[in-house]
Specification:
- The chain contains 15 helices and nine strands.
- With 379 residues, the protein is of the alpha+beta class.
- The protein has a five-stranded mixed β-sheet, sandwiched between helices. A four-stranded antiparallel β-sheet has the order 1-4-3-2, sandwiched between helices.
- α7 packs across α8 and α13 crosses α14.
């Protein structure tokens, strides 16, 4: 029986969310204080054991397996399990997943190195003065000095399958070939580095000859393909960001920061979108830097001019119009309406607001209003 086969029945019995997650030593130390640090000392009896539980906040955590650099944990969305329930779950864990060896089954050298990279990245991101270049002991030869394509994968949906490192790495290799680096960050966040060869067309002699626009289109295409594969083969719906190729040894921290910001902006301004591209979120990044009070005040003043902005039909029309570079004919085709019907809607907007989206200046203002409305209406 696999680790996750019995999670759904257990979730049904307990009537609360149940997940299997993997915590790095750094994450586990933060969760349970000094317990993980004491365990690392070989001269001290391990305070951890399969089946032991910790209650914190609105969750109960139970140890499933202990490795050299990671702990597999059962996350139960209830802080008040009955003693008999804990004993039964503990017995089940020991029976099916337990091991007499306190370090548990050995993990691969690849995963061990990835966990060390993840811990180093987390430490730098939390530091006031982060180191932006990888230390020599983490570079592993020259591989990480070559340019690679960075992705950030995030899933936070309750009830989704939590794949192991080995499962996800195998899935990525089937899509990206063997040249892939998978780094676990948080329990549901993965940094992925793929080979730059993914960008090369079979008929192209060199990637350097491609134009910048082609690079962005290629990255977007790879991102969509990767997301589709992951969503169908692994975890269901998830969020994925992709950035321009860079050297992991030199750009690990800056790239991770960019990808995290990209996913946060995408989820904030474009609900329902799962693939997030940094070059498509420049205006959103600028608006996000404006204090919320000022954003709300500007939006309130703008919406006083017309309620037309917030009508679903007009919102859909304008979003499609902007996504097609303000092309009237293409927008009418996409919306399955007559061209004159679209022109009528745009003229109505101009009449009630004084803003003609067929003019560049007014189009920019309307775009800003729509982005601010998406954020403010949820607050």
């Amino acid at each position: 029986m696999s680790t996750t086969d019995w999670l759904k029945p257990l979730q049904h019995i307990l009537n609360c969310p149940v997940h299997a997650v993997t915590k790095s030593i750094a994450e586990w130390s933060e969760l349970v204080g000094s317990a993980a640090g004491a365990w690392l000392d070989e001269s001290t009896p391990s305070p951890l054991a399969v089946g032991q539980s910790i209650e914190q906040g609105d969750k109960t955590w139970m140890v499933m397996a202990i490795h050299e650099t990671a702990v597999e944990v059962l996350e139960i969305g209830s802080p008040s399990l009955q003693a008999t329930e804990k004993e039964l779950i503990s017995w089940t864990l020991q029976l099916n997943l337990g091991t007499k060896d306190k370090k548990g089954p050995a993990i691969s050298e690849t995963e061990r190195h990835a966990l060390k990279l993840g811990e180093w990245i987390q430490k730098q991101l939390e530091s006031n003065e982060p180191a932006y270049s990888l230390p020599d002991h983490l570079t592993v030869g020259n591989r990480l000095f070559n340019e690679m394509i960075p992705f950030l994968l995030v899933t936070e949906q309750p009830g989704t399958k939590q794949a192991t490192y080995t499962e996800l790495e195998k899935l990525l290799r089937s899509f990206m070939s063997d040249d892939v680096l998978l780094i676990p960050l948080k329990s549901q966040e993965w940094l992925i580095w793929g080979s730059i060869s993914l960008l090369r067309d079979e008929d192209s002699d060199a990637f350097d000859d491609q134009e910048e626009e082609t690079l962005e289109d290629s990255l977007a295409s790879i991102g969509f393909g990767l997301h589709e594969m992951l969503a169908s083969e692994w975890i269901g719906e998830c969020h994925l960001a992709v950035a321009a190729p860079t050297s992991p040894a030199k750009g690990m921290i800056e790239t991770t920061m960019l990808l995290r910001e990209t996913i946060n902006l995408g989820r904030k301004f474009h609900i329902g979108t799962n693939i997030h591209l940094p070059w498509m979120l420049q205006l959103e990044r600028l608006l996000n830097a404006i204090p919320e009070v000022q954003r709300s005040k500007y939006l309130e003043q703008s919406l006083k001019r017309a309620d037309l902005f917030v009508e679903s039909e007009m919102l859909s029309t304008l979003e499609t119009f902007f996504s097609l570079d303000c092309n009237v004919s293409e927008t009418a085709k996409k919306l399955y309406i007559h061209r004159n019907t679209l022109l009528y809607r745009l003229d109505k907007l101009k009449q009630e607001t004084g803003l003609d989206v067929r003019q560049f200046r007014d189009a920019v203002l309307v775009k800003i209003i729509l982005l601010l409305y998406k954020v403010t209406k949820r607050n």
